[in-house]
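Appendix C reproduces, verbatim, an entry submitted by the partner laboratory led by Prof. M.T., so that reviewers can inspect both the input and the predicted structure.
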Amino acid sequence: MTLAVLEEAAQHHLDSWTPHIVHHADAAPTLRALRARGMKLGLLSNTHWPVSFHEHFLQRDGLLELLDVRCYTSAMSHSKPHRLAFEEVLGKLGVLPEHAVMVGDRPIDDVWGAQNIGMRGVWRPHSGAPELGRVMPHAVIQSLAELPDLLASL
């Protein structure tokens, strides 16, 4: 009985977030363009939500099949900016840090964390994103659609 109540509560929680979770409109076309260039694509998300929540939203928006690897810190031992979080994704992708780029909206967690292990860090700010402070990204993009051309130049 208790498990059924927990499952129902989790479903109500997911349902309450559903209208508010919106992926960037340029995410799918950008991921398709990067895949067409033979790039391996991974997602690393600092989260407290269960994996199933994220997978649900990615599936709903047609992004799930575009990502080779998806890692959520709710199911990991460490979160960004810890090196082990990045190393887990890189290991699953089979990519060395110096051949990888992290794109994110959090200067410390995403950009600095990636740079700290030898990856390149690209900052994609938005209206609620923290300021860069002393973090120096390799590049700044305003939209994901800029990413294919940027990566070709890095």
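The mean pLDDT is 90. Additional entries are available on request from the coordinating office.
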